[in-house]
């Protein structure tokens, strides 16, 4: 009887233990299931956020075209003139960027200086440079005849005492005014380039300039300021006014005169940069035309570092006293 009782008691304990283990297993399964659901929810939430970000990026990129057309993939943004077609073949071709040449970049590329010629030669100038004394006399006589014709055409008597020698005087003066046609940069520089470890700005200012306007053969005159920043070499400072004088002693316009001086210095010296500013009065605006006596014309040409660096350019303008005029 006692044995039977023990057996029953053992059975109850085994049943209770089995029930307890089953409950533990079920609770563990429930916890794992809950953790998995939370993880999946977090993953889904993360995916939704990513999709929302992609959607916003796509909307910002194509202006909402993909959503209107029902496309899920992002489209390449089109130019405004081709959005309506929405055809890749209608998209205008973008211009290819030109490769920048090595060396100093300039807004106005320097032309090749013809050292053996006249640094911008024109028809007839080489003959003048290489003419003999007999040819020079013939040129002068021909020019005197032209001046005599002008005197006759304006209603003057070329044989009158006061203008009797005017053709000869004017012919000689005109040849002097245009003597720059008989000069070139090489002869003017005359190897006056020296190696010097100097990399700060060099300026020669207030260079007096007298030239003839090629449109009316009337003088224009003023002052020129030249500055450069050396690159291992410097030039004799007297050569800068001489170069300006050479180009001014030709039939000119002020814009070209300013540019030619800058290009010539850039070519012969190869500095870090060149800046040239000219301010002048034109008698073709004073004696005729609008007849304005107080006007002045300012032109500039900046190359190399003067063009690329605003601080360098402003320093030059300030030193030559023109910074206020350029603001």
Quick tags:
single chain; 327 residues; alpha+beta; five-stranded mixed β-sheet; 11 helices; 7 strands; 47% helix; 15% strand
Strand order of the largest sheet: 5-2-3-6-7
Number of continuous helical runs: 11
**How many strand segments?**
7
Determine the structural class based on helices, strands and strand pairing. Answer: alpha+beta
Assembly annotation: single chain
Give the averaged pLDDT, no decimals: 80
Helix content estimate: 40-55%
Sheet of most strands = 5 strands, mixed
Distance between the termini: 122 Å
> Strand fraction band?
5-15%
Order of helices and strands: HHHHHHEEEEHEHEHEHH
Shape assignment? elongated
Global Rg: 44 Å
Uncertain runs are: none
Descriptive account of the structure:
It contains 11 helices and 7 strands. It is elongated. The chain is of the alpha+beta class. Helix content is 47%, strand content 15%. It has helices at 2-62, 65-69, 125-130, 133-153, 166-177, 185-189, 239-248, 254-269, 283-286, 305-308, 310-319, and strands spanning 193-195, 202-213, 219-229, 233-235, 251-252, 273-282, 297-304. Helix 4 crosses helix 5 (166-177) and helix 7 runs antiparallel to helix 8.
Gist of the model:
This protein is an alpha+beta fold. It is 47% helix and 15% strand.
């Amino acid at each position: 009887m006692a044995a039977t009782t023990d057996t029953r008691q053992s059975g109850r304990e085994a049943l209770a233990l089995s029930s307890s283990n089953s409950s533990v297993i079920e609770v563990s399964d429930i916890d794992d299931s809950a953790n998995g659901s939370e993880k999946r929810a977090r993953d889904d939430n993360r995916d939704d956020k990513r999709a929302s970000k992609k959607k916003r990026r796509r909307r910002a990129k194509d202006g909402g075209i993909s959503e209107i057309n029902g496309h899920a993939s992002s489209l390449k943004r089109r130019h405004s003139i081709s959005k309506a077609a929405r055809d890749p073949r209608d998209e205008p071709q973008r211009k290819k960027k030109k490769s920048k040449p090595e060396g100093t970049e300039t807004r106005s590329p320097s032309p090749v200086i013809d050292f053996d010629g006249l640094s911008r030669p024109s028809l007839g100038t080489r003959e003048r440079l290489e003419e003999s004394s007999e040819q020079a006399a013939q040129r002068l006589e021909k020019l005197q005849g032209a001046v005599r014709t002008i005197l006759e055409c304006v209603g003057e008597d070329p044989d009158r005492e006061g203008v009797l020698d005017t053709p000869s005087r004017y012919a000689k003066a005109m040849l002097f005014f245009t003597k720059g046609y008989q000069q070139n940069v090489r002869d003017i520089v005359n190897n006056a380039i020296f190696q010097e470890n100097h990399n700060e700005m060099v300026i020669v200012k207030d260079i007096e300039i007298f030239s003839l306007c090629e449109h009316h053969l009337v003088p224009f005159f003023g002052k020129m300021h030249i500055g450069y920043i050396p690159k291992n070499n410097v030039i004799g400072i007297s050569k800068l006014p001489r170069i300006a004088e050479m180009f001014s002693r030709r039939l000119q316009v002020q814009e070209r005169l300013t540019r030619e001086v800058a290009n010539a210095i850039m070519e012969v010296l190869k500095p870090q940069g060149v800046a040239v500013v000219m301010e002048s009065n034109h008698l073709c605006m004073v004696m005729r035309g609008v007849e304005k006596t107080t006007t002045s014309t300012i032109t500039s040409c900046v190359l190399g570092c003067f063009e690329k660096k605003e601080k360098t350019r402003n320093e030059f303008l300030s030193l030559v006293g023109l910074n206020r005029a350029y603001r």
